[in-house]
Amino acid sequence: MELFLKLLLAHLLGDFTFQSKKWVTEKESKKLASGKLYLHIAIHTALAFLFVWKLKLWYISVIIGISHLIIDAAKLLLQTEKTKRIFFFIDQLLHLVVIGLLSVFSSTTEIDFSFITNSQLLLIVTCVLFLTQPTSIIIKTLISVYTPKTEMEKDDSLENAGKYIGMLERLLVFVFIATNHWEGVGFLIAAKSIFRFSDLTEAKDRKLTEYILIGTLLSFGIAITTALVFNTFS
After folding, report:
1. Distance from C-alpha of 34 to C-alpha of 174, rounded to nearest angstrom
2. In the predicted model, what is the mean pLDDT of residues 165-187?
């Protein structure tokens, strides 16, 4: 469990936190000729080595790096604009399979009950990190098939405000459930509904309303599921 959490945390950092949108765009345009692709792989390899931090398990970081290169290269070569959404999830699933297999086959060298407290900390950090940038990208990818166009798009708004609001609400949901205060989730949903009501009234666009509802329900659903997983394994 500890090794899996370490590798998962390294993956989340490498794929989401330390990879900007510009890097992704360059990789998609230049494909295997992109220098950002190989820098991305180097970061994943280094993070895996740092998080495992055992010389006898050096092969794990090498396998992570090689498998990541193969999976990412295949995605870049095979995906199209229409299939980009599904390839994103296939890509992430394959990375998780590699991490899971490495954790299972290396578990005999990782059993150490003195790290129970450390595993708890790793679980918290992994859950919190997952609910920030990774979940934002997952939700954006899931609802990318919908592009409602309304007069509200012309209004001025804070840059990336929606993304950060989503991150904060998911973290609050996680804290409320992890501390067994479910009533806080209801309060948060009610508060967001009130603030959103005026925007939806001004838009007078049913598609925008449905778009926002889908995004909100996905955001809360993922946050609740993550919190329940945390409560189960903590």
Report:
1. 38
2. 92
- Give the DSSP letter of residue 155: S
Cβ neighbors of 172 (< 8 A, separation 6 or more) are 184, 188
- In degrees, rounded to 5, the angle at the alpha carbon of residue 117 between the alpha carbons of residues 115 and 119 is 70
**Side chain identity at 182, as an amino acid letter?**
W
190 band by pLDDT with thresholds 50, 70 and 90: confident
Predicted confidence at residue 25, as pLDDT, reads 93
Are 137 and 89 in contact by the 8 Å Cβ rule? The answer is no
Q: Give the torsion through C-alpha atoms of 97, 90, 125, 232, to 10 deg.
A: -70
Cβ contacts of 90 within 8 Å, gap of 6 or more: 75
Q: Which residues contact 120 (CB under 8 A, 6 or more apart)?
A: 234
How far is Cα 152 from Cα 203, in angstroms, rounded to an integer? 6
130-133: long-range pairs with CB below 8 Å, 24+: 130/12, 130/226, 131/167, 131/170, 131/171, 131/174, 131/222, 131/223, 131/226, 132/167, 132/170, 132/171, 133/16, 133/17, 133/167
Length of the chain: 234
For 122, the token pair is 């790793």
